[in-house]
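Narrative summary of target 7.
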Amino acid sequence: IPCAVGGSSTADWLSDSIYNGVRLKSNLTDKLTWAMKYGTVKGIIWHQGESDATAAKLPCYKENTEALFKYFRDVAGDPELPIVAGELGLFPGVEKNRLEYLQINEILSDITGEDPDAMLVHSFGTTPKEDNVHFDGPSQRMMGKRYALAWLSLVQSRNK
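Modeled conformation, tokenized:
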């Protein structure tokens, strides 16, 4: 499973900004192209939002995320490519951004609710790493299982 480099806002992805020496959108395109060369892309797992959880970036989050989902599908050549998005964790240490995190999760819920080929994975029951932003190891595994089950559900509904 090729993984694109992350850690940036949706605007950074769309503008192909450089993060850790890598062009984000170009990296994603390269990874999808590589995956299609050697197999079939069966879906996208999207977990992003912390970088957009600011008053300045929130107004564009839904539009940008929808544009990225369309871009993913366009590159993959599949307008119905399953996309599973994950909620941000609402941990005690994110009090200063709690409202923005809630809004990101609500926007992701709206997007996946409007898109029959997308599904949202909830983050309830997860615990953070020391930074109180990212999931700890057990929670990453929990989210991974949720992503897999959501993807499977999308694929099964698509094949009916």
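The chain has a mean pLDDT of 91.
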